[in-house]
Every structure is written in C-alpha cells, then in structure tokens.
C-alpha cells in the first residue's frame, strides 16, 4: 500500500467511528462564513495559504513545541490570505478542534486539510468552522468527487480540489472544480518539485485560480510560480519550522508581489 492508500484505509475506520459517536461541534456559535476562494484573489500578487502542520508522514514531527494559535496569529501578522488547518490526527498530529480555536483568534478564512472521502467529513468541517475543504482527486472517484463538491457548496464551503497529474486535472475540471491545487509532492517517494505545478499550469483555464502546494520554502520558488501566473501557494513545513513565521510569510508575499 502507498501512503495515500494507508491513510484512506484509516479514514474509513475513523469516519465510521465518528459517525457512530455523532457530530459534536463546539457549543459556541461559529462566526459567519469567510470566503476562501475570494480571499486568494483579493491580492494583486501571489497569496499565501499558511498551514498549521505539526507533523507529516514524510518528515515526522516538524514542530515539537507546536502552538497553533500563536502560529496562526503570526501568519496573520505576516499577511497570509488564509490558513490551512491539518486536522488528521494519526498521520499529521492535527485535531479538528483546532479549526474552531483558530477561528476565535484570527479573522482569516480556514481550509480543513484532511483526506475527505465521505459527506460526514464535510459536515464536520462546516460544524467546526472551516470555510473550505480540500478534496483530493487521487482518493475520490469521479462520482464521489462530484457529490462532495455539491455537498460542500450547498453548505457554503469552497473546495480546493487537489491534483498530481494531467489526468486528474482533466477529471476535476470536468467535475466543475473552480479552484485547483497542484500538489508538488510525489506520494510514492515523497520528493517535491515545483516543476509539477509549472508543467500543469498551461492546462488550467485562466478563470480557475491555481494553488501550488508543497515543497515551497524560498522567495525564489514563489517568484518562479508568480511568473507562471499561479494565484496562491500553500506552505506548511517552510513556515512551521521558520524562526520567525510572520517574517517568513512576509518574504514569500514580497516575492509574489504584482502577479
Ligand atoms: O506532507 C506530507 O508528508 C504528506 C504525505 C502524504 C500525503 C500528504 C502530505 N502532505 C499534505 C500536504 O499537502 C502538505 O501538508 C501541504 O501541501 C504543505 O506542504 P509543505 O509545505 O511541503 O509542508
């Protein structure tokens, strides 16, 4: 089994258990929806989606002293357009509760970054205060992708639809994705290369904003992606491990100025 298959097998068990336990959102009221897709388009340059990522299957623990609320405030101070919250517990050491907690301390739109295979996870994302969900083409067949897109939109959530290659890109565009993410991480060997985004860029219609995900750490990476017309970058490791995360976001934004 590759890592995605392992994660998805676990998700099936997790969803079944959570469904049995019922939806348990926070008691307090969640503030109104914050448009995620529109926030990425608000900037004249490349927008930064800053990720709260404690650990990963490829690198293990990235931030031993992980303080998501403090990090979220720093991302906001550096000018991030949105925040990606990794909610998977087993492989990334995230928690769904972090969505609601972050929502209390920053006013940016929040993406639930997880491995969604079921309508229930969309409902959870909404209940815990996400403004958008990630849908990964590699783990969804065409029918389920279409259903989850429709279900999320009905709930008022934006969808970032992730692809790794040309075939997946074609499929998600046919399914009606209006925000596409190209993941630069090869899930077989975990290598990352922004060449994946640069290769697929030409095939993404101009009206569909493109997010480049994974393996982006330097202003030079962002400058290359800006020149190719990328709308936003999604950055995890490069920010959670930075000595000054606000400054790190600022530096990436600076390199992406004037798209
Ligand atoms: O990060 C991993 O090791 C990983 C492994 C298997 C599936 C997904 C994985 N990451 C999820 C992500 O997409 C990244 O967290 C996100 O794009 C940020 O990447 P990075 O800036 O390289 O931390």
From TrEMBL:
Show the Pfam families listed in the entry.
IGPS
Q: In which pathway does it act?
A: Amino-acid biosynthesis; L-tryptophan biosynthesis; L-tryptophan from chorismate: step 4/5
Q: What is its EC number?
A: 4.1.1.48
KW Transferase (keyword) present: no
Catalysed conversion reaction: 1-(2-carboxyphenylamino)-1-deoxy-D-ribulose 5-phosphate + H(+) = (1S,2R)-1-C-(indol-3-yl)glycerol 3-phosphate + CO2 + H2O
What GO molecular functions are on record for this protein? indole-3-glycerol-phosphate synthase activity; phosphoribosylanthranilate isomerase activity
Enumerate the transmembrane spans: none
Query: Which residue numbers delimit the Indole-3-glycerol phosphate synthase domain?
Result: 4-252
Keywords linked to the UniProt accession: Amino-acid biosynthesis, Aromatic amino acid biosynthesis, Decarboxylase, Lyase, Tryptophan biosynthesis
Among CDD domains, the record links this protein to: IGPS (cd00331)
Family the UniProt entry places it in: Belongs to the TrpC family.
Database matches in PANTHER family: INDOLE-3-GLYCEROL-PHOSPHATE SYNTHASE, TRYPTOPHAN BIOSYNTHESIS PROTEIN
Official protein name in the record: Indole-3-glycerol phosphate synthase
- What is the organism of origin for this protein? Dissulfurirhabdus thermomarina
Phylogenetic placement of the source organism: Bacteria, Deltaproteobacteria, Dissulfurirhabdaceae, Dissulfurirhabdus
């Amino acid at each position: 089994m590759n890592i995605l298959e392992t994660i998805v097998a676990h998700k099936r068990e997790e969803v079944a258990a959570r469904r049995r336990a019922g939806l348990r959102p926070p008691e307090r009221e969640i503030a109104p929806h914050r448009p995620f897709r529109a926030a990425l388009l608000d900037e004249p340059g490349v927008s930064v989606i800053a990720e709260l990522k404690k650990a990963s299957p490829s690198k293990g623990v990235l931030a031993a002293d992980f303080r998501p609320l403090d990090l979220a405030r720093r991302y906001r101070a550096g000018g991030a357009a949105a925040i990606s919250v990794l909610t998977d517990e087993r492989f990334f050491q995230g928690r769904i509760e972090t969505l609601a907690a972050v929502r209390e301390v920053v006013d940016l739109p929040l993406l639930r970054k997880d491995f969604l295979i079921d309508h229930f996870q969309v409902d959870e994302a909404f209940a815990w205060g996400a403004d958008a969900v990630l849908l990964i083409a590699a783990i969804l067949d065409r029918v389920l992708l279409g259903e989850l897109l429709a279900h999320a939109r009905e709930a008022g959530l934006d969808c970032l639809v992730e692809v790794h290659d040309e075939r997946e890109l074609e499929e998600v565009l046919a399914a009606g994705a209006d925000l596409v993410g190209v993941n630069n991480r090869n899930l077989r060997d975990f290598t990352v290369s922004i060449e994946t985004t640069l290769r697929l860029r030409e095939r993404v219609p101009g009206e569909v904003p493109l997010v480049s995900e994974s393996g982006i750490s330097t202003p030079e990476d962002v400058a290359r992606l800006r020149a190719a017309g990328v709308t936003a970058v999604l950055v995890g490791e490069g920010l959670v491990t930075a000595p000054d995360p606000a400054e790190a976001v600022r530096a990436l934004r600076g390199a992406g100025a004037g798209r």
